Amino acid sequence: MLGEYRISGRRAADIAASVEQAVGAGELSPSQLLPPLRELARQLEVNPNTVAAAYRTLRDRGVIETAGRRGSRVRSRPASTPREAIGVAAPPGVVDVSMGNPDVALLPPLGDALAAAAARHAGRPTLYGDVPVVAELEEAARAAFASDGVPDGPVAVASGALDAIERVLVAHIRPGDAVAVEDPGWGSALDLIPALGLRAVPVAVDDDGPMPQDVERALRQGARALVITCRAQNPTGAAVSERRAAELRSVLRERPETLLIEDDHGHGIVDLALHPLAGRTRHWVFVRSTAKAYGPDLRLAVLTGDALTIDRLRGRQRLGPGWVSHLLQDAVVHLWRTGAVDPRSVAAAYGSRRDALVRALRERGIAAHGRSGMNVWVPVPDETGAVARLLQAGWAVAPGARFRMSSPPGVRVTVSPLPADDIEAVADALACANASAPAGRYG
Fold this sequence. Notes:
By secondary structure, the protein is of the alpha/beta class. The chain is 39% helix and 15% strand. The chain has helices at 12-25, 37-44, 48-60, 111-123, 135-147, 161-172, 187-195, 212-220, 242-253, 291-294, 307-318, 326-338, 343-363, 383-392, 423-433, and strands spanning 64-66, 72-74, 95-96, 155-158, 178-183, 199-206, 209-210, 223-229, 259-263, 283-289, 301-305, 375-379, 395-396, 398-399, 410-414. The longest helix is centred in the C-terminal third of the chain and has 21 residues, at 343-363. It is globular. The two termini are 33 Å apart. The model is unreliable at 436-440 (pLDDT under 50).
């Protein structure tokens, strides 16, 4: 069952460490079946409860998964192996359209914003015991949320969207619980869920967002939380339409106990209207990060939600980092107030490249998708072969395995580094790598 490797240890912590170290070293491979609990207890001459505790620890850390009588096995993608590791390095001469980064030419200079934050700090330095959210940031965030129809609620600040999502999940969900998540979806979120000891339940996506029947099925089967992307969905470019939002609200009204997490990471780079779902369940949060509009190194996200969830998040945050730097918060306030980024012009810049690539691919018989944001999703019948052939043709794309659970294969192309003159060339390369692909929904 385990080949040459032998699990060791007398205490639960030692047994768990033995398995985790073997997984990290590659001595236990993904999907490998572990010994039944009582069998391993006999081998190690320990109480079965000790092995049960070790397996529970490993499950909570996202190293293994358990399936009742089918036993426990190493996860197909252990939490220690991030999805970003699935990919190819772009050698010299190859155009890298795989990374998902914004176009640096569309990012604002940060000098004035950071100087303004430093000037504020010189006159009023932040010290221990200060408020966690700068008043000006909270005021601006509340106004922006209200203008987009997001229900009123307390405001918190986190170190990016993923940090916010993790803190919200931990505030309500316990190891072993199920979380409904988009498939294909954001690879970091798909990594985070098992790392927290949670079980991801895939929800299919089309151009208008999560499929309502899949959301209803996932919640009916016991998913306690739902994580969705409002606009610029990664990797498909989906955006929740008005009609889809109404359908999803109807589903959520029947499941008011669901923890709803909405990720609007595309704020500032999209011009599509927002159709929030927030407020249809007892516990909800709405998250906006600054990474796509102002650059990934400006690690800040603002969020609002129901009072209990935000209070739990703030309480746990106090015991960790304490707060997100007021220097960063003041810099964001400056960027917002000065209109450093015009969402319409940025959206138009990404949209012209994205729409041109989708159109060129469809002219070549490929049903590509990309309704908003900076990415185009291209279904392919053979993901590994398509990635390899594109690399040979001079294009490094992101393998769909970084974003998929059970949905069909595909590749992601980020249009940020693509000048208009390269659109036809990359479309030709994709057509050669993939003569035909399925159309319609993504899962």
